[in-house]
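> tool_call: predict_assembly(chains=two)
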Amino acid sequence: MSFGKVLKHPLVLMLSIGLGVLFGMYGKNLAIALGAIGDAYLSFFQMTVIPILITAIVSSLGRLMKDKGAQKYIVRIIFVFVLVLTFAAVFGTALGLVGRPGSALGESTTNTLNKIIKTSSQDQNQEMALKSPNLDHSGSKSSLLDFLLQIIPSNIFSSLSSGRILEIVFFSIIFGIAVGFVRDSASTFLLDLATSLLESFQKLINWTMYGLPFGLFFLIGKQIAQVGTEIFLAMIKFIIIFYAGGLVVFLICTAIIWLRSREKNPLKVLKAFIDPIVISIATRNSFAALPSSISSLNKMRFNQNTTNLVLPLGITVLRIGNILYFAFSACFVAQIYGATLSAQSVLLIIVGSLFAGTATAGSSGLLTLPMLGIILDPLGLPVESILVVFMAIDSLIDPMRTLLIVYGNITTTSLISDREVDSGEGES
Amino acid sequence: MKRTVFLLLSLCIVPFIAFSQEIADKDIPPDMNAILKRKQLVVAMTTTDQPPFYFINKAGELVGFDVDIAKAMGKELNVGLVFNREAKSFNEVVSLVASGKADLAISKLSRTLDRARYVRFSTPYIILHQGLLINRVQLAQRTSEEESKTYIRGLVGKIGVIQKSSYVNYAKENFPKAQVVEFPTWNETIEAVTSGKILAAYRDELEIRKVFDSLPNSAIALKPMYFTDLTDPIAIAVGYKNTQLLSWVNTFLEMKSYHATSKELIAQYKDQ
């Protein structure tokens, strides 16, 4: 086995994650200082994300529009997307209702949570002028309509330079459709250009994979070093139940991909997708895992054109992990405040988590958490205090959330795209 | 000629005589003189402890911010200190001073127009802000997170205050649409807000901070909100005849710079 193959071997990746965990636990300060190396590696991924996003969507959508059967595909995409969204919301709610992460917490847990909320609450939220309303600037309320209108960029170059993913995806879709309507002799060059750009960027990402064991080591080390042990112990029930639920979804996804790929050995499925799996866990950024997910699906011989369209689109709008997590944590908050959930409130959680999760489209990490208000406000439950706790444990939750987004979308893609039947089948 | 020289010379001596003489005891204004002759300064405080202003510590001693001010005053005047703690309420403390049974009231006393009819107030030595301690669930059922401040400005709902305290009037004045509920004690007010019987408890920033810091479940269940533009100035009360004493108290407060924020006060006297 060549050295390059050793670096890409799943066992080596697992080993570097394990070492990274130990590094973060026992070399806290050093792990945080050297985290910069991991961050630089992450930047290397992110560098190619936007070009890959655009070229993948434009080239695939342009070709699809020229295809006679395009309509069939679009109906299938919408159908499967809605199905997957609903599954995520229902599963997250069920997990929260059955797992009961927020009931019977015990005195020491409550005390720890209180201490954390008190120390990290911001003073400006506890001060106001009663008689001069102009003085404080309360956060702007974003309605669903605002959110939809903001997707349309007024200047695509400014969206590109500030990396506003939703706007970029919107532009790419419109542009891809337009290219599809341009007569062949004029558009072939553009589609070929998009494809060759896409393939070059994929090549770049493939080279980057040799550095993955080192990148993982530093990224995971920093991540572990930053987690406070006290809050971790106080929220252990919540974290364990969420991870157990995530694992169940992961196994369901693996089973679906396995059935769709008609591979004999399910372990081969896991092996094929090891790169996107570890990248999403280590970087906590679903877009960073986009390039390697496309490569892996291509390796599994799923229709390349469909993959190039469905996966970038899915990772942007199908926020499976976030929807599931929001539904789950809404149940947690309801249990903390001892609220009894009627059938109507359960329905509110399911629908609310769909909207809240989808509203995180294009962003990742801590920025997504305040969307929880979309579910809790109609339920009449307070957001502010518990939000602080969620932020404190998010470095532990985010890897699973990101994994569910990435792996869930790989599964969705496998459901939509057909497997290419060519002479190469049977080999691997 | 000789006489003129003598007169001129004697004129030159006059200032020396004047400066070398001490201020005569007879020049001390009568109110101050009474205290110095008695060698005693009588300071009134309510019977109920008001930590961190005045309270009995673990060792059984009377300590606190107000006690420290009184002690420093006694030392400056070189007289002994007597604490009169007969008063059951803050208004009774004012009566003690107005009737001359006590020289000063240093008793976390809010300066109000009503009290200013009876006694003279010093400049405030602490300006507390007013605050609400709000039940989070009750608030969330009425309004969303973003609109909560707007909601508080036009607050509709039950606000709990201590019976016959200055906050009864403050509540009616500042939250005209709210329903003011009076409770016999502060503890009962807190119980009502924790259990959700009322929307909020209304008192000064310091008391709200103390409750918020001490209750085990407070941060999850309750939300404090302090008003930057509603103040509760704390001052020393002096009998109406004792103008010189008042002037001395003001000079003392200014020169010794006794002032603190409620956060600092809580931290300073926490361990006692």
